[in-house]
Amino acid sequence: MKGRTISPGKAQGEAIVSREPMGFYGGIDPKTGVVIEKGHELEGKCIKDKVLVFPQGKGSTVGSYVIYGMKKNGVAPVAIVNKETETIVATGVILAGIPCVDSIDIDKIKTGDKLVVDADNAKVEVE
To answer: Could you give the domains of the chain?
Structure first.
């Protein structure tokens, strides 16, 4: 799948997919990488070392720093794939150096799929 590069780099890993938008500030614990947003479909799941796939971000601009904090704490996803990356997520992945691609049809990806993310060339492959 061809998309648009938001933050360069290459990564591969198991997909964890949300069909709902994600908020990082108050939505994910920056010390553990566990989704803590009440009622979110990924509540209680850990995103550490996964390829996090979701339509777009939501919420506070502080979310950018939560993404950066997760990277510093070693609990960040290895890559992020979005339908549309808005500025909060874009700023966070660039600060943290997390590969990110958007303009991807995320409906073709399921939790557990093995993904190869080549953000340098704006490509996402399901193995």
So the answer is: 4-126 (3.50.30.10)
